[in-house]
Amino acid sequence: MDIIGTVVTGIGVAFLFLGNLGVLRLPDVYNRIQAGTKCTTLGAFLTIIGVGIMEPIWFWKALLIALFVLVTNPISSHAIARASRKSGVSLCKQSVVDKSEDFDDFGENA
Amino acid sequence: MILVVSLLVLVMLLAAIAAFFFKDLMSAVIAACMVSLIASILFYFLQAPDVAMAEASIGAALVTAVFIVAIRRTERYEK
Amino acid sequence: MSETTVLVFLAVICTGIFICFLRMLKGPTASDRAVAVDTMTTTVVALLVFLGFVFQRYVYLDVALVYSLLAFLGLVAIARFLEGGI
Fold first, then answer.
1. What is this structure's pTM?
2. Radius of gyration (Cα) for chain B, nearest Å?
3. Which residues contact B38 (CB under 8 A, 6 or more apart)?
4. Range of the domain at C58
5. Chain C meets chain B (3+ C-beta pairs below 8 A)
6. Are C43 and C17 in contact (CB under 8 A)?
7. Annotated domain spans of chain A
8. Mean pLDDT for chain C?
9. Strand pairing partners for A105?
10. Probe site for chain C from B26, B46, B71 (most C CB atoms < 10 A)
11. Among residues C2, C59, B8, B37, which one has the least CA distance to residue A10?
12. Contact B37/C37, CB-based, under 8 Å?
């Protein structure tokens, strides 16, 4: 059980580091949101569940924390993406298509 | 372990200095949010989880919201 | 879990925090800095749970619980300000 927990925690830590590296390296706000939220959500989930596997008494509380991370993280990332699109942050040069130009009012009056 | 704590203290100090030097006050508020985030981890390292909990709730949520209301009432960019 | 593994994991997570801080320092717009703080928040929740395991204290998980519930409120406030709400 200890080895399984260590492996799961290690994968989670690796995902956390990759998410943080993506925040530094990617060229655009939206790409950074993509790396920094999806990757980090999976990393935090695996790390917390790995700790819960290593200490079986802690498992339900760890699962509760992981569910809270899983619920609250997309809310903040969606809010930041919407705010940066509305405040006029431009896309990077390599971007191919921007479908959100069709929805300038973001469905508020539609 | 001491190297990890030293790295966190370094990040916290640099974030505080950055919050002092930003001309955009919104960025300064975000840097102050980061300072309280790392102060919470440092309280955690010092075996004080209750102080860390208070720092987390007050520093991350409440102070940021109060600063944002203040910036909304005044102006965003420092002259 | 051996001592060396614990130290390696802590070092990797704290290096990630430092990288997020570099993006917060560099970021051209305020949105970049908000993204850096968002990423750092999730990393810190994972770090708090892992430190609770390292110190072997069950009570320390409460801090991570409160943090994961409350930290996104400040970010949502920042986002509402950036898009012109509040």
1. 0.90
2. 14
3. B8, B11, B12, B15, C17
4. 3-82
5. yes
6. yes
7. 2-88
8. 86
9. none
10. B26
11. C2
12. yes
Residue A13 pLDDT grade (very low, low, confident, very high; cuts 50, 70, 90):
very high
Q: Dihedral through CA B8, CA B13, CA B14, CA B17, nearest 10?
A: 160
In total, chain C counts a number of residues equal to 86
Structure tokens at A83: 């705010």
The tokens for A89 are: 């942050």
Question: What are the tokens at B9?
Answer: 């203290």
C3 burial (CB, 10 Å; 0-12 / 13-18 / 19+) is exposed
Among C67, C83, C86, the residue to mutate for chain B (most B Cβ within 10 A): C67
A59: closest CA of chain C, how far (Å):
11
Considering only CB atoms, which chain C residues are within 8 Å of A9?
Answer: 9, 50
Q: What would the pLDDT profile of A48-97 be if each residue is shown by its tens digit? A: 999 899 888 888 988 999 998 898 888 888 888 888 888 877 777 777 87
CB contact under 8 A, C70 and B61: yes
Quote the minimal CA–CA distance from A63 to chain C in Å.
Answer: 11
Domain ranges of chain B: 2-73
Total domain count, chain C: 1
**Token pair in block for residue C83:** 């898009």
Q: Which of C60, C66, C82 shows the shortest C-beta gap to B57?
A: C66
